[in-house]
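Q: I have 347 residues here and want to know how they pack in 3D. Can you give me a structure?
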Amino acid sequence: MANQFVTLKDITALKGGDAVVGLVDNIVNVAPEIDLVLGRPITDIYYNATIMTAVGSNAGFRSIGGGVQLSAPSFDRKRFNCFPFDCQMEVPEDYLEEANADNPVGSILSFHASAAMRQKALELGKQFYLGSANDAGGPPGLIDFLAVQRTQVDSRTGLKIDQVVDAGGTAAGKCQTVWFIKQGPQGVHWLFGKGQGIRMNPWRQQRTSGADSTANTPTYRTAWVANTFGWIGTSMANYHAVGAIINVDATIQANGTYTYPLTDALVSQLWAKFPITEKPDLAFATQNAIASLQASRTVTNMVQSGNRDWTSNAAPTAAWPTNLPTAGNIRIIPTDSIVPSSRLILN
């Protein structure tokens, strides 16, 4: 991807703004994953998790004076890494010459810093779900963890772990996934390497290449430069900490119904697949998927016996879902980081 430079149009827009109104953010994408999913700092840029995969099978009763065979558990070691996350910013000094009391240099530069932090949230939001499919240079996402999960044996059944329910959608560009996670040190969480999160480094003046610089004719200019930087990773040591309802199609048909909506029945099926001790505590879905859940719910209209008026706390439309009461009261969070795509087929 090519470098992105601030243009004169950008800086002119910043100069002409009203100080009271400030920066009007027209980027309405919501990426709550970095704020809502738990994270923990680690001293290095990786850590190793020891995972027990079997408890042994030779424990049992014995006769007096008799014996039993030796029993031993099985363990795996899995390494979880952090990856360097960087956003570089550069504002040429001549673009700041007309800064004034309403828009001082510090405010203009802070607008760029705010944009960098928004970019961070949006990028990490996509990475949280798609992982290597979004950026192979970054940490794994829930889809990567799900793929690994499905290669592991479920101790309850002796079969491969299956924590997926298919809503049935097949249309290209319409299918989306509703994700369920269990957070915590052994569950899904962010990793912040070197003991800190993403930091905003100070603005400083330095010589940089000009916008018209070429390999044969280099040019230079002085600019204010800064960057945001941090070591970011994801972790899921417990293989049961993620589940998904795949191929939800929240397209509204001509008759007003949703094609393959998210429903309480699908949620209940998935909830039952999680182990009793590993139930999810957060769910993420698009607004359209959550709306399809709302529309799928049957509303019981409670009326007064006399004049058949509505009672004060009843309504003919189901409430907007903010949690999933039939599945342990799990919070369901709307996000723009989940993007509809082709039908998901898992091995």
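Q: Anything worth noting?
A: Confidence is low (pLDDT under 50) at residues 4-25. The chain has one domain: 8-52+76-299+315-334.
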